[in-house]
């Protein structure tokens, strides 16, 4: 899920989600292919750390990955209101 420009409230689901605050220049097809691969969660995270970026629009976003392990890409003004279900923040 990508927030886009402006303030956002992003709510994930019960599975493993990718939550990106702001806008992104990332190739979402590549991100999807890695995320839905048969790789272990930690290996998917390692591969995606260099492939996912978010552009800070200077507006606060509220990010909630949901229940499950998620990858959350946030910016300095954003608030991640989850964090207790194994999320990896960047």
What's the end-to-end separation, in Å? 15 Å
Main beta sheet: 3 strands, parallel
* Poorly predicted segments: none
Order of helices and strands: EEHHEEEE
What is the total tally of β strands? 6
Identify the strand order in the major beta sheet. Answer: 1-3-5
Whole-number count of domains: 1
Overall pLDDT? 84
The SS-based structural class is alpha/beta
Beta-strand portion reads 15-25%
Query: Share of helix among residues?
Result: 10-25%
Shape: globular
- Rg, rounded, reads 12 Å
Number of helical runs? 2
Supply the key terms.
3-stranded parallel beta sheet, alpha/beta, 90 residues, globular
Describe the secondary structure blueprint for this structure.
Elements lengths: L8 E3 L6 E3 L7 H8 L5 H8 L13 E3 L6 E3 L5 E2 L7 E2 L1
Parallel strand pairs: 1-3, 2-4, 3-5, 4-6
Précis, in short:
The protein has 90 residues and is an alpha/beta fold. The protein has helices at 28-35, 41-48, and strands at 9-11, 18-20, 62-64, 71-73, 79-80, 88-89.
